[in-house]
Amino acid sequence: MGPVNVGLDIGATKTLGVVVDADGRVLAQERLATAPGAEGIVATAVGVVEALAAAAGAVTAVGVGVPGLVDVERGALAHAVNLGVDGEWLPLGDLLASRLGVPVSLENDVNAAALGAVALTGVDDLVYLSIGTGLAAGLVLDGRLRRGVSGAAGEIGHVPVDPAGAACQCGQRGCLETVASGRAITDAWPSGDVPAAQALFAAAAAGDVRAVAVRDRFAAGVADAVRVLGLSLDPGVVMLGGGVAQLGEPLRAAVSSALHDQAIASPFLASLDLAGRLRVVPVDHPVAAVGAALLGPREAVA
């Protein structure tokens, strides 16, 4: 194999790296446990890239998807608390480039995943809705990644929908994230060693009445997020991703059912067929790493 581009998805527990072709097909992948803090993040990323280079060929460029606040122009990262990076800007792009000797592009992980979802579907008007610990969206509109003036585009989880709802970590009350996120499921359905979302959906499928109620409330919250995105952006596809999306088809079906219920009294909403636009990321498809591998030196910003 000749020179290759590598994409990295750096998360709190693992760093996943992939080599992809021009169409986003994964040719090789490698993962390592992420060591915390600036030095740990850099060392882990370098280890993954070196392993991929040994397996697939000389690396010509690296794209990185990472949680937190990302300054794309500077290649800097801040407020990635789960990675051990606080509010001070970390020049992660420069640190990696100096160690690897190749250009490095940095992007928020949800935005990178949106680009990976575009490569997966071939649809260039798409919203990637990440349902992980929190809730956030990556927006690709007419083929252009939308970050927003302050990088806050797609922070759908912090749209308040219930003035009497639970306090959110962002300081507001009743945000969508307090209902429609992995953290919300864990709070509502503690499950020990089994992932809470899997335990909840299994119990609901088995007929547990309380589990059905918790699942349906969660699904209605995700449907609310889809509805806000659909009415504000009208995307061709809404792709459900993130850790909770490992549920696969049961998640899509539950959210689709909630969308249908919400549209019963509204011919206008029914005519939009938001449920018909739903997709779910195939289990274990590394959309964030793929999207990172496809990053240009300066991805188009709208």
Tell me what the structure shows.
- The protein is an alpha/beta fold and 302 residues long.
- The protein has 2 domains: 4-113 and 285-293, 2-Layer Sandwich (Nucleotidyltransferase, domain 5); 123-280, 2-Layer Sandwich (Nucleotidyltransferase, domain 5), CATH 3.30.420.40.
- Helix content is 37%, strand content 22%.
- It contains 9 helices and 12 strands.
- The chain has helices spanning 37-56, 92-100, 109-121, 182-188, 196-205, 209-233, 249-263, 267-272, 287-293, and strands at 4-10, 14-20, 26-33, 59-66, 69-71, 76-78, 104-108, 126-131, 135-141, 144-146, 237-241, 278-280.
- Strands 3-2-1-4-7 form a 5-stranded mixed sheet.
- Strand 1 (4-10) and strand 2 (14-20) form a beta hairpin.
- The longest helix has 25 residues, at 209-233.
- The protein starts with a strand and ends in a 9-residue tail after the last helix.
- The model is unreliable at 298-302 (pLDDT under 50).
- GO terms for molecular function: kinase activity.
- Belongs to the ROK (NagC/XylR) family.
- Keywords: Kinase, Transferase.
